[in-house]
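WARN  no MSA supplied for this record, continuing single-sequence
INFO  ligand: pyridoxal-5'-phosphate
INFO  echoing inputs
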Amino acid sequence: MSIFESLQQYYDTIRFHMPGHKGRELHEPYGVSKADLTELAQTDCLHRPSGMIDQAQRRIAQIYGVDKSRMLINGSSAGLLAAILSGFSPKEKVLLPRGSHLSIYHGLMLQEMEPVYIYPDAEMWAEAYTVTMEDILTAEKEHSLAGLILTYPTYLGTCADIKKIVGWAKNNNKICIVDEAHGAHLAFCEDYPVAAERVGADIVVQSTHKMLSSLTQSAMLHVAQRRVDIEKLDMYLRLFQSSSPSYLLLASLEAAVNYAEKNAKKIFEKIASARKEFAEAFADGKYFLWQPQTQYDYAKWVIGIKNTDLSGTEIQRQLSLKKIEAEYAADEFVLAYCGIGTTKDDIINLIRALNEVQPIQKKNVDKAKRTCLPAKAQMSMKEAAGQRTEYLFVREAVGRIAADFVVPYPPGIPLLVPGEMISEEIAQVILENIESKKTMIGIQNSAMKVVL
Ligand SMILES: Cc1ncc(COP(=O)(O)O)c(C=O)c1O
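INFO  complex generated
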């Protein structure tokens, strides 16, 4: 079967995963080939915009209330790389939660920075850990920090006190980069946690495709502070983005922001109030929507499971048989992402299908722990990646130094980065992930790359 034929098999599913349009054509571009163009006199140039792209970027900046916006066609990944390389100098120290996305580590590696990690406590899911002011003040006592990189909201929707943190960063002359890959909708939703760009974070990067309706791989970068060196930032964007930017992605970004400006508030309000309907439907407590201690994004439904022997992974499997596709699942929950394309019927179908899940004798257990275990860096990421290497079975790699990233996917949070010592405990978590059949970047046939 061709790639396209395989994709077609998926056309009639109800999607609670990214992208945010959920497979619906909410706006143009409709017929793709005619709009698939290259840089021409009429089509402006992403890398030196002065026409329609420049106008679109100015309008996006106005809508998001920021100084400058940039359209990205290589995802938030490219935006985060450019933000890190333009925002910091080599060897500087930067504070970040260890549960950050792989693309941030790539930026730190290229800029040869010294990361200072905030680790969640052992019981906390890495995908949900948010940074507190206390974490920042403790780290600041020990390290001379050039700035911080926050993930806001996290993959599971938790949100730090962004206003306080950005205020502190400003007062203390620290650069604050926000990975808002999962939060392009926040700026439109008054009742949701405030958007980082609205409180003046220096650089905010958003995957518009994740919660809003642009095509996968399209994203945006916002500069909310004048102190950012925009020329340097643009230079790095040219470095990390294709020299043949897709006009389909650009057109879909512009249309998605226009669509969100008109519709996001209402749609995301409905999604937030549908949480109540979910709670009423499961008043027996079989399922519940997780309510973290922090503020959180109401569109990310972490569906907890009570009074049942089933794991989240098994529930995800049974939903999929009914053509309802979740974003992610773990032992204790199923993650359903509502986006701008989510409809009332989608939610009714999800509730119905959850009600019909069959208890089965044998749990489909996902044993992999999803905490971030502290790992000791023996050399920098860049240094380790440049060494001669060998492959070893994970068990035999204990005590050696990782030469590559080891990353369960999704959500893309590294268990190990190059240069870190492979401890017994971390090897065990890697083995649990392998046993649970997780997609693991950096693992091949149960072996991993170590420094020779
Ligand atoms: C928290 C976070 N940041 C950044 C990214 C990278 O975004 P993109 O896929 O748009 O490059 C992801 C992707 O999953 C993510 O989850």
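The chain has a mean pLDDT of 93.
INFO  checksum written, moving to next record
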